[in-house]
Here is the input.
Amino acid sequence: MSEFLIVGGGVIGMMLARELAVSGADVTLLDRQQCARESSWAGGGIVSPLYPWRYKEPVTQLATWSQSSYVHLAQELEEDTGCDPELRQKGMFLVSVDDADAAVDWARQYHRPMARVDAEFLYRKEPNLKPGHEQAIWMPEVSSIRNPRLGRALREDVKRRDNIRLLEDHQVQGFILEGERVLGVETSQGRVCAGDTILTAGAWTGQLLESLGLTLPVAPVRGQMMLFKAPVGLVNRVVLMDGRYVIPRNDGRVLVGSTLEYTGFEKGTTEEARASLYETALNIVPQLAEYEVEHHWCGLRPGSPEGIPYIGALPGYRNLHVNAGQFRNGLVLAPASTRLQADLLLGRQPIIDPTPYELSARLEQS
Ligand SMILES: Cc1cc2nc3c(=O)[nH]c(=O)nc-3n(C[C@H](O)[C@H](O)[C@H](O)COP(=O)(O)OP(=O)(O)OC[C@H]3O[C@@H](n4cnc5c(N)ncnc54)[C@H](O)[C@@H]3O)c2cc1C
Here is the structure.
C-alpha cells in the first residue's frame, strides 16, 4: 500500500506525484483514462495569468513561485525523459489594455519585468500584427509551453520512477471509509488503498466529493481553441488582446484562444465559437487568413471562485486532501500548488503561507 494515492493525472496530479516521489515517498497515481488528456492537454500553455494584475494576491503568490521554476523543470524533464515540453521564453505583448496604470503599479510592487512600449517597438518585434496599435504592455519574461508535450514528458517521468505506481483506466466511483477516516477509493478495477488520498481531478473534483455530501465550488468552464498551420516567424510571441490571445509554437503553428463557457460537463466544439475564434485570430494577425485551420478543440477548466485553488485537507474527514480549482491558470500555478501541498503532506516548512488555499473556511456543507 502506498503512502499517497493521487486521483487524477492532469498536470496537478502528475506534478504532485513527482514532488512526493522526489522526496522519497511511495505514490499511487490513478486516472480514469490515459493521463494528461483533459484540460491539461487542451490548454494554451501561457506560463502567466492573462492580466496578472487583475488577480488576487494568492494567485500572484503561486504564479510567481511557479514561473521561476519552469525553466529548470522543462530542462529536467527533457533530460530525464527525452520529451521536450517546448518552453519558449519570448515574452508577451498585451494590446488594447485600458488599465495600464494598474498594470505598471502591480509590476512595480511585485518586481515583475513589465514596460509600456510604443508602436515602433511593438511592430519591430511583431511586424505581422494588425496595424493601428499605438502602444502595448510588454512582459519580456513570460514564457509558453506546449501542453501535449508537457503532458507526455510528465507521464514518461512518472512511469520511469520506481516509487510511483501508475494506474490508468481506473475510474474512481466512491470512497472507502472507516468512520471519518478515508482508506482509499473504489474504482472500475477494484479497490485502491493508501495512507492519504489526494483529489486532483480538475473540473470533476467537486463531482467526486458529492458522494460524501460535500459541495466544493469547483465547476467546469469550457474553453475552445483553434490551431492555424502557419509558417515559422509569422508570430513570435504571445499576444493578448481583449481577453483572447495568439500563441506561437516552435514549428510556426499558431494557437488562438479561448472561449469561456459555463455549459457544465458538455464537451464539444461549436460552429459559433469557431467563427468567433477565427475573427479574433484575424483581428490580431490578419495574415492568418492565408493559413489552414488545422484543429479546433475544447477542454473543461476547473473553475473556482476568483481562480484561487483549493489546496489542503478536507475538513470532517481524515486522510483526504484536495488540490483543484486552478481555473484558467493551471499550467502556471501547477509547480507551486503541488510543491505547497507536498510540503504540507510531508510536514515541511511550506514555500508560501497555505492559509488562503485552505478548504476549512471556504467549503460549504451541503
Ligand atoms: C482552452 C484552455 C486554455 C487554457 N490556457 C491556459 C494557459 O494558457 N495557461 C494556464 O496556466 N492554464 C491554462 N488553462 C487551464 C489549465 O489547462 C487547467 O487549469 C489545468 O490543466 C488543470 O489541471 P488539472 O490537473 O487540475 O485538471 P485536468 O487536466 O482536467 O486533469 C484532471 C484529471 O482527472 C481525471 N479524472 C476526473 N475524474 C476522474 C475519476 N472519477 N476517476 C479517475 N480520474 C478522474 C481526468 O481524466 C483528468 O486526467 C487552459 C484551459 C483551457 C481549457
Remarks:
- The longest helix spans residues 330-346.
- The radius of gyration is 20 Å.
